[in-house]
Amino acid sequence: MSYLLGVVLFALAILISVSLHEAGHLLTAKAFGMKVTKYFVGFGPTIWSFKRGETEYGLKGIPLGGFCKIVGMTPQDDDVEPGDESRVMWRYPVWKRTIVMAAGSITHFALALITIWILAVSAGLPNPDFPTTDAQARQEPAVIQLSDCVVPENAVRACTPADAASPAAAAQLRDGDRITSINGTPINNYGDMLTTLRSLKPGDTAQIQYVRDGQQGNTSTVLAKTERPPLDNPTGAVAPVAALGVGLVPSTPTRVTYGPVGAFGATANFTGDLAVGTAQALQRLPQKVPALWTALTGGERDIDTPISVVGASRLGGEAVENNAWLVFFMLFVSLNFFIGVFNLLPLLPVDGGHIAIAWFERARSWVYARIGRADPGRVDYLKLMPFTYAVILIGGAFTLLTIAADVVNPITLFSR
């Protein structure tokens, strides 16, 4: 039941975000005096509506977005009533049209920033000092977390009955113990522990000294076998090595909370990282299509593949089911930021395409004026329709592929 509640809550949050996106267009267009005739949440048949002034507001039957109808977005629009010629959008200065078209994305960015700031002062944001690379992790104290087993191959997977039990568990070590020496070799950090274990062989007996709750202890165990690449070459060939069956418990906290003022700087830093990650994700989209197809046809789902609204809602349901509300809100932040950036891409029919054309017209008029030629006027959107249809076709196919993969082989963050 909590899973279903999470799915519904996340889907509702997305619908509200998209509705606010369209409200951004609506409010800025009205503020500049443009004529707005419709503002609806959803698509399809009208369920309920009312008219206030010259604008009809309402709800449609399919809750998958919304739309805002601004009269005369392009010179080719033929829905201009007599007397409204001066209020059509394309006649307004380019900076006003830019604000109106960018208002949707700005709304998504605002939702993301506000949510990040709230998280910064409440649940906390990811700690920028938390070790994220092997080199950083090896400098951490050798505080251990026991594994359930030792996987014999170089892979991350669930344990099976055929896997060897953790030698550390057999030695009665516990989560949170700090290893201080192995076979008399001092262990100052996690890297020392790995180096010392690599000097031993599977089946060797390891004499271990450790600290637990401030008290020193001694134990011994027979090391298991696994396969790993060399420590100095993570992409090198794997070979059999000794394994203790433990992982690292970083001493650095995973999250940091901030005061109301400090949260602004933390929000800015986190947003910068989010922007870089979003740009990288957009660059990887074309190469992720084969991975999505593999997931759809029965292969393993790559966690780095794109997700649709369906997949995001399912992850939101998992987060609520596991009481992981921070994950829920981080998904909300990431999705809003991604939608905001995507809508600014210079492609029709998204908002960024209209902005790009407006500034292209402005630049072209400036150039023609400087060289003494007549202003060529507005771009003919009808000539761009084949390109627009191609973008819609490709985007639609990609969306359907992503939705299908999210239904057939969804990404999961928690064991269910």
TrEMBL record:
<dbReference type="GO" id="GO:0004222">
    <property type="term" value="F:metalloendopeptidase activity"/>
</dbReference>
<keyword id="KW-0645">Protease</keyword>
<dbReference type="GO" id="GO:0006508">
    <property type="term" value="P:proteolysis"/>
</dbReference>
<keyword id="KW-1133">Transmembrane helix</keyword>
<feature type="domain" description="Peptidase M50">
    <location>
        <begin position="10"/>
        <end position="364"/>
    </location>
</feature>
<dbReference type="GO" id="GO:0016020">
    <property type="term" value="C:membrane"/>
</dbReference>
<keyword id="KW-0378">Hydrolase</keyword>
<feature type="transmembrane region" description="Helical">
    <location>
        <begin position="387"/>
        <end position="408"/>
    </location>
</feature>
<dbReference type="Pfam" id="PF02163">
    <property type="entry name" value="Peptidase_M50"/>
</dbReference>
<keyword id="KW-0472">Membrane</keyword>
<protein>
    <submittedName>
        <fullName>Site-2 protease family protein</fullName>
    </submittedName>
</protein>
<keyword id="KW-0862">Zinc</keyword>
<feature type="transmembrane region" description="Helical">
    <location>
        <begin position="99"/>
        <end position="120"/>
    </location>
</feature>
<keyword id="KW-0482">Metalloprotease</keyword>
<dbReference type="InterPro" id="IPR008915">
    <property type="entry name" value="Peptidase_M50"/>
</dbReference>
<dbReference type="InterPro" id="IPR004387">
    <property type="entry name" value="Pept_M50_Zn"/>
</dbReference>
<comment type="similarity">
    <text>Belongs to the peptidase M50B family.</text>
</comment>
<keyword id="KW-0812">Transmembrane</keyword>
<dbReference type="InterPro" id="IPR036034">
    <property type="entry name" value="PDZ_sf"/>
</dbReference>
